[in-house]
Design a protein that fits this description.
With 273 residues, the protein is α/β, with parallel strands linked by helices. The chain folds into two domains: 20-96 and 231-266, 3-Layer(aba) Sandwich (D-Maltodextrin-Binding Protein, domain 2), CATH 3.40.190.10; 97-229, Periplasmic binding protein-like II (D-Maltodextrin-Binding Protein, domain 2), CATH 3.40.190. The protein has ten helices and eleven strands.
């Protein structure tokens, strides 16, 4: 009969039920990260909790994690704070994405300029009657992602929104944007392309009133024709930070395009080429 000491049993018990290492970061990349962790066989060792690009950025700068998925570039002040602490963030581009301006499929609006988008999200245009191609009248119900979202940062930067208007309501996740635009005929919202559903659609966008409007297709995003396109990143902490055992297993997989590109495509993002 094999006998285990109380100490050995205690060690086995702790090991068996050890909590997985959690990663914060972009909610846009939540599906990619969760699928990558599963495909790498690390589901018992790692868990992706999202929270927004800002949360991943904060955790990396604070030395709490060495991998931060982000749907925007790291902010200059965050980068400088990390370097001052001895941490050197390295950006790895992993995919391309478009930020769609979504409406319900019943809405006939065919295109918007970035100036019109800005006016909608600044609450200067508040009635669908001001956009005749919509075929609608009534209050425009405007929704956005929260301030921790890299999607919000990118949207504000490209569109030129400094402050959202009082009419804009906050939704915390891409899935919430998808649900609202599918179920609310008066809704308009922005989100990454993974928010696309059979009941909503992305509107064609143009840089200005005199420019051609484009849909966020693979070709248009890759060729910088669609005006609300962006690069998605995984940031790696180097310098004084040493990747833990879980991060050391996961990061090479995230940087292996033969491993990650199929996951990128399954989650409706665009590979780099």
């Amino acid at each position: 009969m094999i006998r285990f000491s109380t100490l050995a049993l205690s060690v086995l018990s702790v090991s068996a039920f050890a909590a997985p290492f959690t990663f914060k970061g972009s909610d846009t990349l939540a599906g990619v990260m969760t699928d990558a962790i599963q495909a790498a066989g690390l589901q018992n060792e790692a868990q992706y909790v999202g929270g927004g690009s800002g949360k991943g950025e904060e955790a990396l700068v604070a030395g709490q994690q060495g991998i931060a998925p982000m749907s925007r570039e790291m902010k200059k002040e965050a980068f400088e704070k990390a370097v001052a602490a001895g941490i050197e963030p390295v950006a790895h581009a992993i995919a391309l994405d478009g930020i769609g301006v979504y409406v319900n499929v019943s809405n006939k609006v065919n295109k918007l300029s970035l100036a019109q988008v800005k006016a909608i999200f600044s609450c200067e245009i508040t009635d669908w009657a001001k956009l005749p191609s919509s075929g609608k009248t009534g209050t425009i119900e405007v929704f956005r992602r929260d301030d921790a979202s890299g999607t919000t940062d990118t949207f504000k930067h490209i569109v030129g929104v400094k402050t959202f208007g009082a009419c804009v309501k906050i939704l915390n996740e891409t899935a919430d944007i998808a649900s609202e635009t599918v179920n609310n005929a008066n809704a308009v919202a922005y989100a990454g392309l993974s928010a696309g559903r059979p009941g909503n659609r992305a509107v064609q966008l143009s840089k200005d009133d005199n420019s051609i409007a484009y849909l966020p297709t693979v070709y248009n995003v890759r060729n910088s024709l669609y005006p609300l396109a962006r690069t998605l990143f995984v940031y790696e902490a180097t310098g004084s930070y040493t990747l833990n055992s879980v991060e050391s297993k996961l990061l090479p997989q995230l940087l292996d395009r033969s491993f990650l590109d199929p996951i990128i495509q399954q989650n409706e993002f665009i590979t780099l080429d």
